[in-house]
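Entry 14. Structure prediction run on the chain below.
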Amino acid sequence: MFDDLAHEQLLAEIKDLRDKADLVPELEMALGQARSEAHDRRRELEALARGSRAVLQQKGFAGAARSIFDYCRELIGAASGYVALLNEDGSENEVLFLESGGLPCTVDPKLPMPIRGLRASCYQDKKAVYENDFMASGWVYFMPVGHVVLKNVLFAPLVLDGKAVGLIGLANKAGDFTDDDARMANRFGALAAIALQNSTNQDQRDRLEREQEATIRQLREAQDQVKTLKGLLPMCSICKKVRDDQGYWNKLEVYLSKHSSAEVSHGLCPDCVRQHYPEVYEELFGDQEPKK
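Output returned:
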């Protein structure tokens, strides 16, 4: 009896060990997947941190946008792409820079890039969109002749105050774009939008500072030009010369030009005309009494 119970207990323990052994591959697979996901999350956080530093460190939007784009492209695994902003009337993209990924492109960079196709969907929906079979899609008919071949594309918007004002374009990923890629691209688009807002604010501050400096400079120049006469003015009662601070006697017009902003012109008063040029006085005034 005792031997039968021991035997059954031993068989049960063996079965339990076998069941646990069968779970080992599943546990190893789950552990490997968890490690892979943790690695991906770490890469995402590191890329976002580098993008955030670019926003803080770069003085201009072009430099910050290029850094953010490079971090995003490297993380997602795209080979090419660009960053563009809407023009003033919202009808076209103005490309800030273009990364061809080493592929040939003969499109004239001066050609307009109208808002249509998949780009229009990105601007309208204000969220990332992608197409993994681009060359077989209807979007391909909007491409100009000579454009880089696009295996797949992804667009993420730059949104400010609830309006999409630009986008990050990515293309030619080795595999397919995924919803995770779209999620990450949206985050990098948000960083680029912050960089754009910071750059705009800085430009406005710089403009106001330049205007303020120009105003101060103009006021100082005007102040330097303004001269006023104060106090007693020593004047000869006969020749009307004026004595300056150094003790020299100057003609009145010379003194005024040096110590004020007045400009002196010369003429003759009626009394001097009558005294020195009586004939002219008669012609000018006759019997009329001139103004004193």
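The chain has a mean pLDDT of 81.
Filed with the rest of this week's runs.
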